[in-house]
Amino acid sequence: MVADGILLRVKGLTKKFPGVVALDGVDIEARAGEIHGICGENGAGKSTLIKMLTGAHTPDSGTIEFDGVTYTALDPRRAMAIGIGCIYQELNLIPHLSVAENIFLGREIYLSDSLNILDRAQMNAKAAELLADIDLNVSPRARLGTLGVGHQQMIEICRAIWSNAKLIIMDEPTSSLSEKEAHDLFRVMARMKERGVAILFISHRLDEIRANCDTVTVMRDGRTIESFAMKERSVDNIIQLMVGRNIQNKYPKERAAHGDVVLSVRNLNRKGVLHDINFELRAGEVLGFAGLVGAGRTETARAITGADPFDSGTIEVFGKEVKIRQPLDSINAGIAFLTENRKEQGLILIQSVAFNATIVKMHKYGKAGWLSLKGIRETARKICAEMRLKTSGMDMLVGKLSGGNQQKVVIAKWLLSNAKIFIFDEPTRGIDVGAKVEVYKLINQLVAGGAGVIIICSEMEEVMGMADRILVMHEGEITGEMTQEEATQERIMYAASGFKQAS
Ligand SMILES: Nc1ncnc2c1ncn2[C@@H]1O[C@H](COP(=O)(O)OP(=O)(O)OP(=O)(O)O)[C@@H](O)[C@H]1O
Ligand SMILES: [Mg+2]
Fold first, then answer.
1. Residue with the nearest Cα to atom 24 of ligand 1?
2. 228 with 297, same domain?
3. 98: Cβ–Cβ under 8 A, 6 or more apart, which residues?
4. What's the longest Cα–Cα distance across the chain?
5. 196 and 291 in one domain?
6. 414 and 270 share a domain?
7. Ligand nearest to the CA of 57
8. How confident is the model at residue 341 (pLDDT cuts 50, 70, 90)?
9. C-alpha 34 – ligand 2 centre gap (Å)
10. Rounded distance, CA 289 to CA 454, Å?
């Protein structure tokens, strides 16, 4: 380690992609034994910086000094060898191998140097030690694929510990974790830190940054704006640095007049998943679904939109029963569903922004759509501009956008459809604070125009800030209902834990 405790020192790192300067002279320093948060708007260059450190990409210029040695570029093997570990959001593990096999993947223990035979007993024993070390109650022999995402991430951390990583990088690790899993992760991070490991932690959840980071660096437009000790700044201050302006009202809710019932779901059942789901949604209303991860909210949305089958129940749109057997049926009935897992379900990564944004519309109007394609593209452009989509143009491939910007394209796509009922599953996951406000304003516009909107959110503040009425689910059942005025965190938590409230 360098004398002043600085483990990593990045200087003037630059990376250009066709049409985009992703990094424009980035400087950042991380000390051993600190959790260093990196914040910035979508497309600010956070993931690109990480990719330089893990050797996934080569910088155009600049230097990376690590553990006293200066590099102009790293490759994945070298990065790992010198002690840089990374927990990617898309996990790099192999589901059909065991936990132990995954931990030692590429660095297996052999019976002897000359024999090419794995020492499974020792690998399992060592894995058990590593797992116990981070208080993870999982068998080394368990198949990885049987574990939840949170535990799989912990296995990645075991890998990093085993490789003696001095720096562990995490790019939005909590975005798909439940609150409890995230909590476990923070506990393990704190332990790593005590041992002198440096952690780079990227998140759009500023409350997590505040609670867990010692130091924070804010990036904007491919540059590092400022680094400071977390305790010296407020979250509002970070927001100001990130987006370059003040955000007065994080939840700019505007109430619309409520009209007729647009969607009515009665006695919806799916064995073992959904139990007697009943609710109505009115024109002009924002209905929030709260609950813990796995409570059945996404499953309800998937049943209503034909993504999953259901056993019994009826769905009425504008007072008329509709038979929904596949997604197309729900699209034709005027229901738009913005899925939680956008990469898998929402976008065609090898197509352009314009194509993805207009795909629903083209589908709906068939050949006639060609006539107004120009108009649609114009509207797509407008919505993307409102959400501050960062792209080199409407023809850029969606797969090359930053994570958060891909999500904005999905939102644009559905906003362009003529739907009257919108179901948004975690609409602002992975989206920066500034763009969140724009998404909320678009929701305001939708309900002002007479649409009914359902938002499924795990963030309590968001659902309380934006929904007129909140339904709470627990284990496939609706366990609570309250208006925005009645809602408190305690009341939602109570119902989310399975206690039914007396209405
Ligand atoms: N392979 C690539 N080709 C072209 N442009 C790219 C490529 N990878 C990233 N970019 C661009 O570089 C910029 C920075 O992207 P990056 O993924 O680093 O942002 P980010 O800060 O991680 O954002 P987010 O919060 O949305 O994840 C974006 O404008 C992005 O479109
Ligand atoms: Mg990113």
1. 42
2. no
3. 140, 141, 142, 143, 144
4. 77
5. no
6. yes
7. 1
8. low
9. 21
10. 7
Give the count of domains, the chain: 2
- The arrangement of strands across the sheet holding 223-229 comes to 84-87, 167-171, 198-202, 35-40, 215-220, 223-229
Pick the atom of ligand 1 nearest to 432's CA: 25
Residue 333 neighbours by CB distance under 10 Å: 22
- Is the CB of residue 127 less than 8 Å from the CB of residue 58? no
> 2 near 67, Cβ under 8 Å?
yes
Instruction: Report the residue among 201, 206, 400, 436 best suited for mutation to probe ligand 1: largest number of ligand atoms under 8 A from its CB.
Output: 400
Asked if 35 and 69 sit in the same domain, the reply is yes
Ligand 1 pocket, residue 242 CB under 6 Å: no
Which of 312-321, 390-399, 441-450 has the largest mean confidence?
Answer: 312-321
Higher pLDDT, 347 or 323: 323
Model confidence pLDDT, tens digit, residues 162-202? 888 999 999 988 887 778 788 888 998 999 999 999 999 99
Whether pLDDT at 407 is above 70:
yes
Residue 249 included in any domain = no
Ligand closest to 41 (CA) is: 1
Q: Nearest Cα to 163, choosing from 206, 102, 249, 112? A: 102
Domain that holds residue 46: 6-243
DSSP symbol at 154 = H
> Are residues 203 and 290 both part of a single domain?
no
408 Cα to the center of ligand 2, angstroms:
13
Q: Please give the distance, rounded to the nearest whole angstrom, from the Cα atom of residue 22 to the centre of ligand 1.
A: 6
Nearest-CA residue for atom 6 of ligand 1: 400
Q: What is the pLDDT of residue 361?
A: 55
Whether 22 and 48 share a structural domain: yes
Residue 1 maps to a domain? no
CB 408 within 8 A of CB 437: no
**AA letter at 467:** A
Is 217's C-beta closer than 6 angstroms to any atom of ligand 1? no
- With H, G, I as helix, E, B as strand and everything else as coil, classify residue 355: helix
* Distance (Å) of CA 45 to CA 16, 39, 187, 391, 441: 11, 10, 27, 13, 26
Q: What is the CATH number of the domain that holds 333?
A: 3.40.50.300
Q: How far apart are CA 248 and CA 239, in angstroms?
A: 11
- Say if 250 falls within a structural domain: no
